[in-house]
Design brief:
The structure holds two protein chains of two kinds.
Chain A: H1 2-24, E1 28-33, H2 48-57, E2 62-64, E3 71-73, E4 76-81, E5 87-92, H3 106-116, H4 124-127, E6 137-142, E7 145-149, H5 157-160, E8 182-188, E9 192-197, E10 216-221, H6 225-233, E11 239-243, H7 245-254, E12 259-273, H8 283-289, H9 292-300, H10 304-311, E13 316-318, H11 342-351, E14 355-357, E15 360-362, E16 370-376, H12 380-394, E17 399-405, H13 407-417, E18 422-427, H14 438-441, H15 460-473, H16 478-495, E19 498-510, E20 514-515, E21 534-535
Parallel strand pairs in A: 1-10, 16-17, 16-18
Antiparallel strand pairs in A: 2-3, 4-5, 5-7, 6-7, 8-9, 9-10, 11-19, 12-18, 12-19, 13-19, 14-15, 20-21
Helix pairs in contact in A: 9-11, 15-16
Chain B: H1 2-20, H2 22-25, H3 57-93, H4 95-110, H5 113-123, H6 130-144, H7 147-161, H8 164-171, H9 176-212, H10 224-228, H11 245-267
Helix pairs in contact in B: 1-3, 1-11, 3-4, 3-6, 3-7, 3-9, 4-7, 5-6, 7-9, 9-11
The chains are: A alpha+beta, B mainly alpha.
Chain lengths: ~550, ~270
């Protein structure tokens, strides 16, 4: 009897350990892409689906850890940015091979940089490296040493390499030979992509086991979000990378363990007034819109907490300035969101000669205060925010007309004819480094939406922003850069050329049997650590 | 089947009365946002619950019905008048005018009307009140919706011109205008009436389609189209049956119009 008991314990132990081993590796992870990837060439990526494939298959010299927001070595074991900020030297990881067995050498880095910077290729990834005219020189020092020199300093140069998937200079498979954790094994147009584990992937876990744990990843092309949700609940897919608030709440009610709110994201929603001098608007309206008091009054009369609670069902928070609190290093933590205060708004308006007459606010010349707010049709959260702002404005006697336009018409108005009064749009931000927004904050920039392409700054505060942004772009001292960016955030907070409304949360859904998933706010939220993910049968406990 | 028609007419009268008396019947303003209770289920305070901004759905339905039921017939009247004018003239005068009108009609019918409406809407002034906006939308529908009816009217007018009545009138010395006013127009009334009644549900559905695209009636004014947009977020995961009420009302009203139309056709 005792022998039988020992045998039974042994049997259970073997079964459990076998089960755990099974949970640690193998299997197929499925998830959905909203559209088909436009390209398999990692240098030509400019859509979300292609970016997903690049992330899963591309090997990079260094990777931004989406959790810590710090750079970590990948194919480069170390790197050093030159004192002038225009050169970077890499020491490459030895004994690495592409998925087809071709050895990885410094020549591949040189080849990738040459292709990336080839003007004929028009690489969107390469655009980030084009700081000025001139040739990019890549110098192969040895088999594992390479230096890339740019014609001018590039701020945040090292972080840009997170997006550069290294190509093989020798492989007959060209860009299909990869250094990432998976390679594209099958591509059924319009239906799915099948990625298989890269047999030559260089990374191993602490116990010496080759990564990734999961054998294959199947990317199903699925536009319908309802079907995607149903598939998740039925256990047919492993995760949904990004959920909106409605889907999140529905899922949280049905399967709370699957719904993950990673907190505030980098994305923001904002409105602004048209301050373009040549805009076809009456002079008195231009005077309103260029008044700081007017903009601040509008800002103070908007109930941001309500916007976050009603429109985003609590999965957003009132925005502060142009850098989200999710951006741990660059966010100016001294600033707070503008508080909702109608009396303060009316006081600010009174300073500019506005007065209430019955239920209508009038300016000093007697014009009733009325303006239109355009936003893109079909975006329900924005339409709801506009309707709520409309009611907030009505409470201080302002008539706000909400106009939804199809996107091309909206862009035509805000970028070409300037025939609009106020606009509500959002900014989807992927880049932590504020230098990426130079094209917004310089007064001469085309994307300086409230008054673009100025020959000279229209206001003193815009001149100061220009100066600070140029200053931060010309130094590699990160503390000096931080000081300058903090000051720009302060100015924007005070002047409110953009009235920042909310920062949305990053929400995802993760199946219970997908382990080691730690959804974060940076893209790709769920599969940023794809090579660490495992599929098991037991309920996940580590989230 | 007479009782079905009677029931349809009674339903239409009841719906029209309720929406005309919305100012007295509605428990809240259609624009008031009860922000503490968004997406609320039906209750004594909110008979059909609240929408995603906390607005009373019953009140919005009453006012939205008023907008759709008042302006859709107005747009139908406009398009029927245009059809009578253009189609009637082409059928009566014939020749090159008829050819030109028919070519224009074919062109109008072949236009992708939805994209045309979106384009025209984009060129309209921005600073118009919601009521002006909805009036413009329905006026556009009326101005663009005459072509199909004009074809029918033209064919009918052409047939009338060669009918015995008109031949007899010509033989008795009737002039062109007298012929048109005394003999052609009265005989076109039934077909114009049918076109009018057919157009009403078509315009309601068109406004609903525009509403689904976010290009219909401007906030905060409700319409059936804007209320149907709530169903965009309805999924297998959602459980808000009251969201279906505007859809049910739309289907019932359109069906009732068709039943009433059958009666009209019988009169014709």
């Amino acid at each position: 009897m005792r022998q039988l008991r020992i045998f039974a314990i042994f049997l259970v132990s073997v079964t459990l350990s076998a089960g755990l081993a099974w949970a640690q590796s193998g299997g197929q992870l499925r998830f959905c892409l909203a559209s088909e990837p436009k390209t398999m060439n990692p240098l030509l990526v400019d859509d979300d689906a292609s970016d997903t494939v690049r992330y899963l298959t591309g090997g990079v010299l260094m990777r931004l850890n989406r959790l810590t927001q710090q750079l970590e070595p990948e194919l480069a074991t170390s790197w050093k940015v030159g004192r002038n900020g225009n050169a970077i030297s890499f020491t490459l990881r030895p004994n690495v091979r592409f998925s087809d067995g071709t050895p990885f050498t410094a020549d591949d880095v040189a080849y990738t940089m040459q292709r990336l910077m080839d003007p004929a290729l028009h690489s969107p990834t390469g655009d980030a490296f084009r700081s000025s005219d001139g040739k990019v020189v890549t110098q192969v020092v040895g088999k594992n040493q390479v230096t890339v020199t740019f014609p001018a300093p590039i701020v945040g140069l090292d972080k840009l390499f997170d997006q550069v998937a290294i190509l093989s200079s020798k492989s007959p498979q060209k860009e299909m030979a990869v250094l990432g954790s998976y390679y594209v094994a099958e591509n059924k147009a319009g239906s799915y992509l099948l990625l298989r584990r890269n047999p030559n992937y260089w990374k191993h876990d602490a116990r010496g086991r080759q990564l990734p744990y999961i054998d294959s990843v199947r990317l199903d092309i699925q536009q319908n979000r309802d079907i995607e949700m149903l598939r998740l609940v039925r256990g047919e897919i492993g995760f949904i990378n990004s959920l909106n608030a409605e889907y999140y709440d529905k899922l949280a009610a049905q399967a709370p363990r699957m719904a993950v709110d990673a907190g505030v994201s980098l994305d923001s929603e904002q409105m602004w007034f048209n301050q373009v001098p040549r805009a076809p608007l009456p002079a008195y309206k231009k005077a309103w819109f260029t008044s700081t008091n007017f903009r601040r009054a509008i800002s103070s009369s908007i109930h941001r907490e309500d916007l976050a609670r009603v429109v985003y069902r609590g999965h957003a928070r009132p925005a502060v300035s142009w850098i989200s609190p999710a951006n741990k290093f660059w966010f100016n933590s001294k600033l707070q969101p503008h508080s909702f205060d109608r009396q303060a708004a009316l006081r600010l308006l009174a300073q500019d000669g506005f007065r209430m007459q019955g239920n209508t606010l009038r300016d000093r010349d007697g014009h009733a205060v009325e303006f239109s707010l355009i936003t893109n049709a079909g975006n329900k959260p924005r339409e709801r925010m506009a309707a709520m702002i409309q009611q907030d404005m009505a409470a201080i006697g302002i008539r706000l007309n909400v106009v939804t336009l199809d996107f091309p018409s909206l862009i035509e108005r805000i970028a070409r004819t300037f025939d609009y009064e106020a606009c509500l749009l959002g900014l989807v931000n992927d880049d932590l480094d504020p230098n990426a927004q130079m094209n917004v904050w310089l007064s001469s920039a085309e994307n300086h939406q409230w008054n673009p392409a100025q020959k000279t700054p229209a206001t003193a505060w815009e001149a100061e922003i220009d100066s600070l942004m140029r200053k931060q772009a010309s130094t590699l001292d990160v503390n000096k850069r931080k000081q300058a960016i903090d000051r720009v955030q302060e100015i924007v907070w005070q002047q409110e050329p953009f009235i920042y409304l909310v920062n949305k949360n990053a929400m995802s859904a993760v199946a219970a049997n997908l382990h080691n998933a730690h959804p974060v706010v940076l893209r790709p939220q769920v599969y940023w650590n794809i090579d660490q993910l495992t599929i098991g049968t037991e309920v996940a406990t580590n989230r | 089947m007479k009782w079905i028609r009677v029931a349809a007419i009674v339903f239409l009268v009841a719906v029209s009365s309720a929406c005309l008396l919305a100012d007295f019947v509605a428990p809240a303003s259609y624009e008031q946002q009860f922000r503490d209770v968004p997406d609320a289920a039906a209750s004594a305070q909110h008979l059909l619950g609240t929408d995603d901004l906390g607005r009373d759905r019953f009140s919005r339905l009453l006012y939205g019905t008023r907008v759709s039921l008042l302006l859709a017939p107005a747009a139908a009247l406009l398009s029927s008048l245009l059809a009578a004018l253009i189609g009637g003239a082409a059928g009566f005068l014939g020749g090159w005018l008829e050819s030109c009108v028919m070519a224009a009609t074919d062109l109008f019918l072949s236009l992708p009307w939805l994209f045309l409406l979106i384009t025209v809407r984009a060129f309209l002034p921005l600073n118009v009140s919601p009521f002006a906006s909805v009036t413009i939308t329905f006026a556009l529908l009326g101005f663009l919706g005459w072509a199909a009816a004009a074809r029918v009217v033209c064919a009918d007018a052409r047939a009338l011109c060669s009918s015995d009545i008109v031949l007899l009138a010509r033989a008795t010395g009737s002039s062109g205008f007298r012929l048109l006013w005394r003999h052609i127009v009265p005989n076109l009334k039934p077909v114009l009436s049918a076109q009018f009644w057919i157009s009403i549900p078509v315009f309601i559905l068109t406004e609903a389609n525009l509403g689904m695209l976010g290009l219909g009636v401007a906030e905060p004014l409700p319409s059936w189209g804007s209320m149907l947009r709530e169903l965009e977020s309805f999924s297998a995961f959602s459980a808000q049956p009251c969201q279906f009420v505007p859809l049910v009302l739309l289907v019932l009203t359109v069906s009732c119009f068709h039943l009433a139309l059958q009666k009209q056709e019988l009169w014709a």
